[in-house]
């Protein structure tokens, strides 16, 4: 988790567009002359950027980035030390005390494991380490290597002591990897920091995990572009308008390994140990909380179009955009009439 590679800078999942202050809205807000302030840096293995559109100070941005750094220090498995590394190092041995941050993210992860029937599983760590996609050590492991590690992938062997906020991995060699959900949690925590410091209008972008805070300063919605899965240059297939929502995309173009003319993407099937293989090339989730959007983007991608759509339709205040390899776009019921397709290569199906 949290490995960084320069090439993914250009694989931004969502493009923020048309962020202007002038014009009328339904509330006829007065145009603002406040200049936005922003901070950018590399944390959680990706580019993080927070932009504030209110009168504020750079101290608030520093507080936001300090919070992201705290989360990385607790949940990374690629640093020298972290709470998660400590949990993994004692797999099969004992319960390990962790912070409320780490405990809450693990607990939320197990919820999505149950919801997705194991398609989302943070115990995928041993398989992730075999592939190392997105790092300089990326390779295609042998069938034997994968088969040897697959028995370690089982979220039901992650044990929680809720009273004492302790975690134990039942089997020796198990590895928790929170890379599919920690950025979402961090985005929600940044929102809390901004709210506590009087910010009402902001964009939080953690490597394509977007949280659009409030409406824009002129009371219109933020316009976000949904990445074209076949493009590596930040081109988009359509536009949605949101406020106080997180938009997170998982896709086969985000990180991948090419070997002998074949591409292997980074979303791994918890049952086979190989990249998920179905008709989908990307899924974008729109939800109130970024941690939910993050967990669901991986879950629904792994479930596939039919089962993924069923899951989304069963949840409140959650919507999704599914894109298939034949350029068809499917949206959940809450997005009917709200996705503006701008690339004629893609055809809206419903």
From TrEMBL:
Protein name as it appears in the record: FAD:protein FMN transferase
Catalysed reactions listed for this entry: L-threonyl-[protein] + FAD = FMN-L-threonyl-[protein] + AMP + H(+)
Keyword Flavoprotein: yes
Cofactor: Mg(2+); Mn(2+)
Gene3D superfamilies on file: ApbE-like domains (3.10.520.10)
Record has Membrane as a keyword: no
Binding note for cofactor: Magnesium. Can also use manganese.
GO molecular function, one term: transferase activity
Domain of life of the native organism: Bacteria
Keywords: FAD, Flavoprotein, Lipoprotein, Magnesium, Metal-binding, Transferase
Binding site residues for Mg(2+): 180, 294, 298
Family: Belongs to the ApbE family.
E.C. designation(s): 2.7.1.180
Entry-linked InterPro entries: ApbE, ApbE-like_sf
Top EC class, one word: transferase
């Amino acid at each position: 988790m949290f490995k960084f590679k320069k090439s993914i800078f250009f694989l931004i999942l969502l493009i923020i567009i048309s962020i202007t202050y002038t014009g009328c809205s339904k509330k006829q807000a007065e145009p603002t002359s406040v200049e936005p302030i922003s901070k950018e840096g590399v944390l959680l293995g990706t580019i993080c950027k927070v932009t504030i559109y209110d009168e504020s100070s750079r101290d608030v941005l520093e507080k936001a980035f300090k919070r992201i750094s705290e989360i990385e220090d607790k949940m990374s498995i690629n640093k020298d030390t972290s709470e998660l590394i400590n949990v993994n190092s004692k797999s099969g041995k004992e319960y390990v005390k962790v912070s409320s941050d780490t405990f809450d993210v693990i607990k939320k992860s197990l919820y999505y494991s149950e919801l997705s029937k194991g398609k989302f599983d943070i115990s995928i760590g041993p398989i992730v380490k075999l592939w190392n996609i997105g790092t300089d050590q990326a390779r295609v492991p042998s069938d034997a290597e994968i088969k040897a590690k697959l028995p370690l992938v089982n979220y039901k062997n992650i044990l929680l002591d809720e009273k004492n906020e302790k975690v134990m991995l039942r089997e020796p060699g198990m590895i928790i990897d929170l890379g599919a959900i920690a950025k979402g949690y961090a985005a929600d925590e940044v929102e809390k920091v901004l709210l506590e410091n009087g910010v009402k209008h902001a964009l939080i972008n953690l490597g394509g995990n977007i949280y659009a805070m409030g409406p824009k300063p002129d009371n219109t919605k933020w316009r976000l572009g949904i990445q074209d899965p076949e493009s590596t240059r930040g081109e988009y297939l359509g536009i949605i308008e949101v406020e106080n929502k997180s938009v997170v995309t998982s896709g086969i173009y985000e990180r991948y390994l090419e070997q002998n003319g074949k591409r292997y993407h980074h979303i791994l099937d918890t049952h086979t140990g190989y990249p998920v293989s179905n008709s989908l090339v990307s899924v974008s989730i729109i939800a109130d909380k970024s941690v939910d959007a993050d967990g669901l983007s991986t879950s629904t991608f792994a479930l596939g179009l039919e089962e993924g759509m069923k899951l989304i339709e069963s949840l409140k205040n959650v919507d999704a955009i599914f894109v298939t390899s034949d350029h068809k776009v499917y949206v959940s019921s809450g997005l009917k009439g709200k996705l503006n397709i701008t690339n004629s290569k893609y055809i809206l199906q419903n």
